[in-house]
Structures are given as C-alpha cells and as structure tokens.
C-alpha cells in the first residue's frame, strides 16, 4: 500500500464518528482543547499534505480551523442530495475566506465582451448521447495542472479547452503555455485573477500560443516580461463563443464539438473528496460563480438510498436509489485533489451555476486577424 493511501486509510478510520460529535461541541463552546482523536487526524493531515506551522499558537489556530472544517464537511455530507463525499482535503486547514482569497476570483465577472449566447441543436444535428467522456480519446485531455497559489484557473481552463479542441480537430497532441496567458494578457491580472475571455482575447492578440515546454508555467508574473515573440506558436483559435444557458444544449455541444470552459461557485469544493455534488442553491449559489474549470464529459450513476435524520435505524429510506445524471469537470488543483483532479456535479439543476458562462474556442489554423480590445 502506497504511503499516501495508507495515510488516507488511517485518516478515514479516525474521522469516522468524530465529525458528528465535533459539530455538537463546536456549537456549544468556544475554541479550546480538542479531543485526542482530532489531534491524531490533524497530525496525519499535516504528514499527508506536508504542512508545518511557524509556532505553537499558529498550530493551535489551524487545529481549530481544521476541526470546524471537519464539522462543516459532515454537515455537507448530510445535506447533499447526490452521492458526494466530503471530508479532509488539502484545504482543510484554511478558513472559507482564505480558501476563496487564494483560489477564487477577485471580483464578480461581468458580461463577456462582444459575445452573445450561441449554439443550438442545429449546430451538431444529432441526438445527445447518454454518456460522453473526452478523457477516453487520445490526444484530447492533458494531465491535470496545479495552479498552486496563483489565481490562474481561468488561464488553465482555456489552455485545456484549446488543447482538447486541437487534438479533436487535427489529431495532434499539443500542450500550450499557461504562463504566456499570464505574462502577455492585457485584460487579466495574471496570478491576481482573471476570466476565461481574458485568456481567449490574449490568444487572438498573440495569433496563437507557444508550447508549455518552450514557455513553462512559473506561477508568477513579471511586469512587461511577455516572451511570446521568442517562441513558435503551436495552436491557434479562430474565435470564441458563449453557449446558451441550457444544460441540454451544453451537453449536445460538448458531445459533438469538444470540452467547454465553465465558471462555477467553488464553495463546496473546499471539502469535496469524491462523488456527485447535488447541492441546494443556498449551499452553492448559482449566481455567485468564482472558479473556472474544464467540462470534459457527462454520464449517469446510481444514487445512494438515504435515511431522513429523524427516521430510526431500519425505517423507510427518504430517497430510494435512483439514476443520477452528472457532469465531469477537470480542475486545476493537482491530481491529489478530488477524483484524481476531477470532480462531478449533478446535471439538470444548474448546480453551482454551471450554465452561467459556458465558453469555448473554435480552433483553426493561423490566420491574420484584427487586434481585440478588452472593454474599459
């Protein structure tokens, strides 16, 4: 058994039964001494994710945050209407505000510049299939990236979109430069945050993108240090479009044209481990989107029969097992998070605002275009 798997297994054993009791105790008392089991779980968390703290006071503060997050994860577990599992993640020692500051957008996005919602059934001309997973086709989906402390989810989602569409259309494996999108963008704010249309505009203005190998990701931005002209471009786009805010239309376009960038509310992802998230709108507001990812597929799975909280053990289940449709999304937090870097959202209920900004490039070989300007 691999060390990380062993640690996760021990952690799961210790967490079982602990989170529920923590919820009650944290409601009733101020931060203070924590149970031995919690300290053991926290020690395993530190070992698994290589965490250390500057002094005992900071360690105690992070332990208290960890305890509260574990209780929050247990509450999400009880309230989720899908099959999601919530618990210890790489972000379990961060407050909700810290998590949002490091991994979310700085500001709420406005309307994408000069982009109206397009694409409908006529564009693909055949029925939407039951399942779709572009990860299964060669040269389409590249390995999961890790943005670390750089707020560049928007750039990584666009890079993944272009790579996938290029692979589908030309059967060529390309891995494009995220760093070029950060260094050379005139609309985004590099590691300070941006939106997917900022990245698409940069690609159009630069007449393409260099390769990741030639222009590698550094996770920072140096002012006036755009190196695009020093490298040969390996992929281009013709333009970009925004799809209609309809999940059936999005599914049809995804299945026939390729992966799409979407921007969602990431609140529940801090505690997400695996499964299909189906949240109530008050738990994951669909209007407050703040994290861009790549939509790579969809499918259906079996939900788990759940017992209502007030029903005694052995009573009738509140929700019998049934088929649950889901989206498959590629994140940019490394392969150690979620389902090997991916996660799933319920399909058909606009979970976490997935229909708000579905954008995608349309790829083509290099052509001379007029410069594109970002709105004031």
What does this structure look like?
- Residues 42-99 form the Cathepsin propeptide inhibitor domain.
- It holds the Pfam family Inhibitor_I29.
- Residues 1-21 form the signal peptide.
- It is found in: Endoplasmic reticulum.
- The chain has 376 residues and is an alpha+beta fold.
- It has two domains: 3-79, no CATH class; 102-363, Cathepsin B, Chain A (Alpha-Beta Complex), CATH 3.90.70.
- It contains ten helices and 13 strands.
- α1 (3-15) runs antiparallel to α3 and α2 crosses α4 (56-79).
- The model is unreliable at 26-33 and 307-312 (pLDDT under 50).
Summarize the helices and strands and which ones pair or pack:
Elements: H1 3-15, H2 18-28, H3 36-48, H4 56-79, E1 85-86, H5 96-103, E2 117-118, H6 121-124, E3 132-133, H7 153-170, H8 178-184, H9 196-205, E4 209-210, E5 233-235, E6 237-243, H10 247-257, E7 260-264, E8 272-274, E9 276-277, E10 291-302, E11 323-330, E12 342-346, E13 359-363
Parallel strand pairs: 2-6, 9-12
Antiparallel strand pairs: 1-8, 3-10, 4-5, 6-13, 7-10, 10-11, 11-12
Helix pairs in contact: 1-3, 2-4, 7-9
**CA-to-CA gap between the ends?**
55 Å
CATH class of the largest domain: Alpha Beta
CATH topology of the largest domain: Cathepsin B, Chain A
Mean pLDDT: 84
Please mark out the parts with pLDDT under 50 across 5 or more consecutive residues, or reply none. Answer: 26-33, 307-312
Helix content: 25-40%
The CATH H-level homologous superfamily of the largest domain:
Cysteine proteinases
Q: What structural category arises from helix and sheet content?
A: alpha+beta
Number of helices: 10
Q: Bin the strand percentage.
A: 15-25%
Q: If you compute it from the alpha carbons, what radius of gyration comes out, rounded to the nearest whole angstrom? A: 22 Å
CATH architecture classification of the largest domain: Alpha-Beta Complex
Task: Tell me, briefly, the overall form.
Answer: globular
Report on the biggest sheet. 6 strands, mixed
Count of DSSP E strands?
Answer: 13
Count of domains: 2
> What is the element string, with H for helices and E for strands?
HHHHEHEHEHHHEEEHEEEEEEE
């Amino acid at each position: 058994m691999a060390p990380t798997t062993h640690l996760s297994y021990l952690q799961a054993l210790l967490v079982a039964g602990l989170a529920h009791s923590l919820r009650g105790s944290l409601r009733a008392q101020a931060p203070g001494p924590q149970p031995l089991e919690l300290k053991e779980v926290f020690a395993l968390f530190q070992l698994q994710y290589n965490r250390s703290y500057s002094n005992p006071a900071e360690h105690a503060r992070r332990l208290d945050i960890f305890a509260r997050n574990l209780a929050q994860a247990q509450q999400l577990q009880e309230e989720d209407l899908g099959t999601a599992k919530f618990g210890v993640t790489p972000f379990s020692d961060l407050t909700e505000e810290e998590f949002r500051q490091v991994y979310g957008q700085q500001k709420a996005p406005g309307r994408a510049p000069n982009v109206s919602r397009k694409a409908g059934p006529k564009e693909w001309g055949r029925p939407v299939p039951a399942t779709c997973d572009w990860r299964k086709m060669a040269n389409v989906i590249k390995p999961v990236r890790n943005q670390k402390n750089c707020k560049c989810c928007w750039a990584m989602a666009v890079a993944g979109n272009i790579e996938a569409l290029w692979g589908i259309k030309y059967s060529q494996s390309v891995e494009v430069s995220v760093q070029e999108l950060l260094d050379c963008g005139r609309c985004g704010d590099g590691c300070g945050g941006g939106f997917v249309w900022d990245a698409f505009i940069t690609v159009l203005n630069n007449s393409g993108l260099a390769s990741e190998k030639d222009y590698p990701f550094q996770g920072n931005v140096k002012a006036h240090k755009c190196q695009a002209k020093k490298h040969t471009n390996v992929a281009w786009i013709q333009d970009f479009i925004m799809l209609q805010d309809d999940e059936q239309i999005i599914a049809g376009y995804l299945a026939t044209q390729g992966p799409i960038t979407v921007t969602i509310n990431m609140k529940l992802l801090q505690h997400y481990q695996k499964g299909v998230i189906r949240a109530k709108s008050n738990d994951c507001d669909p209007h407050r989107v703040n994290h861009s990812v790549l939509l790579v597929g969809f499918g259906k799975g079996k939900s788990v029969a759940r017992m209502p909280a007030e029903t005694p053990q052995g009573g009738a289940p509140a929700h019998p097992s049934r088929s649950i449709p889901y989206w498959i999304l590629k994140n940019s937090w490394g392969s150690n998070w979620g389902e090997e870097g991916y996660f799933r959202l319920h399909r058909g209920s606009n979970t976490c605002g997935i229909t708000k900004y579905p954008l995608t490039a349309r790829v083509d070989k290099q052509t001379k275009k007029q410069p594109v300007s970002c709105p004031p």
